[in-house]
Design goal:
- This protein is an alpha+beta fold.
- The protein is built from eight helices and 16 strands.
- The strands form five sheets. The protein has a four-stranded antiparallel beta sheet, with no helix packed on it. Strands 12-11-14-15 form a four-stranded antiparallel beta sheet, with no helix packed on it.
- Strand 11 and strand 12 form a beta hairpin.
- It is elongated, with a radius of gyration of 47 Å.
């Protein structure tokens, strides 16, 4: 970068003055005093940030100042800062806009400096032809918007690796990493594709322990475990039955896209209770009844006889 272009900064007083509009260009809407004041503040902030070496923040402030004021002078600061950030292609476009929008108002000496800078920049960049099949797509390079296809021409980019991405509404974006060298032209073809239908099912395997149980899903027989198949997302009820085991009913929540195995443990059916005559306590109770009856009979039999006494009054 030439010293004269690096050190040139637009005077803030230019934001407050009027500038002629070329007859072949539409006039920018006039900025009100508040917008000009904010533009001046942001411009000053950008200059200070550039002096500190924070070029990314300075660029943001310069771009905001230009958006508020539409002053072509600010484009020079933007272009110089873009070059310092190695965004050579953008710097070329911005400096070309500076000369075009400034027109005859650009001082001759400054025009020569900028034209010399453009010549140097064009020697540094590589060209990239971006081809996108189908409908127009939005192109970004390294996360920066480069416009919509068909692009007006090759993209001018600094040498090195760049991530080029094509996005189209309702489709899956396509991106590639390309390597560029200065003075050469590369080409990349991107193909955004239709988005796949949304996934609404999951791959589920149902097992029982022990294996072989009968499976019923939402009142629909599935056969015997293990079973593998697609289930729609949401809640389901699985009933598992195996002879000699307790019947199980399990609630199952399915998440679309998952692949999962569900194992249902079965416990054995408890044995039936033995009949009464096989239960020891029954025989114990019966024996107690027999013994009690025998004792009672013995007590009654051994009672002494009562004397024969009158039961009426007066005794007779």
């Amino acid at each position: 970068m030439s010293p004269r272009v690096v050190t040139v900064l637009v005077l803030i007083a230019a934001l407050a003055g009027a500038a002629p509009v070329r007859a072949d260009e539409p006039a920018a809407p006039p900025a009100d005093d508040r917008a000009l004041q904010e533009a001046a503040t942001r411009y000053d902030r950008g200059v200070e940030l550039a002096r500190r070496g924070d070029d990314a923040a300075a660029l943001a402030e310069f771009e905001a100042a230009y958006a508020l004021s539409r002053r072509w002078e600010v484009l020079l600061n933007i272009g110089v800062t873009e070059k310092r950030l190695f965004r050579y292609g953008r710097a070329i476009r911005t400096l070309e806009r500076y000369l075009a929008e400034g027109g005859d108002a650009v001082p001759a000496a400054k025009r020569r400096d900028v034209e010399a800078e453009l010549t140097q920049l064009r020697e540094l960049v590589g060209s990239l032809v971006v081809i996108v099949e189908g409908a127009p797509a939005r192109i970004t390079v390294d996360g920066l918007d480069e416009g919509e296809t068909p692009l007006p021409g090759p993209l001018l980019l600094a040498p090195g690796a760049h991530t080029v991405r094509a996005e189209r509404a309702g489709e899956v974006a396509d991106e590639q990493v390309v390597e560029l060298v200065s003075g050469r032209t590369g080409e990349v073809t991107l193909r955004p594709r239709a988005a796949p239908p949304p996934v609404t099912t999951a791959q589920i395997t149902l097992r029982s322990r022990p294996d072989g149980a009968t499976l019923v899903l939402d009142d629909r027989p599935l056969g015997r475990a293990p079973w593998t198949g697609e289930l729609v997302e949401g809640g389901h009820t699985v009933v598992v039955e195996l002879p000699g085991h307790v019947r199980q009913a399990r609630e199952l929540t399915v998440v679309a896209g998952e692949e999962r195995t569900v194992t249902i443990e079965l416990s054995r059916t408890p044995p039936p209770p033995p009949p009464l005559y096989r239960r020891p306590w029954v025989w114990g109770a019966a024996a107690a009844v027999v013994v009690g009856a025998a004792v009672t009979g013995y007590v009654i039999a051994t009672q002494p006889e009562e004397p024969d006494v009158p039961v009426h009054w007066p005794p007779q």
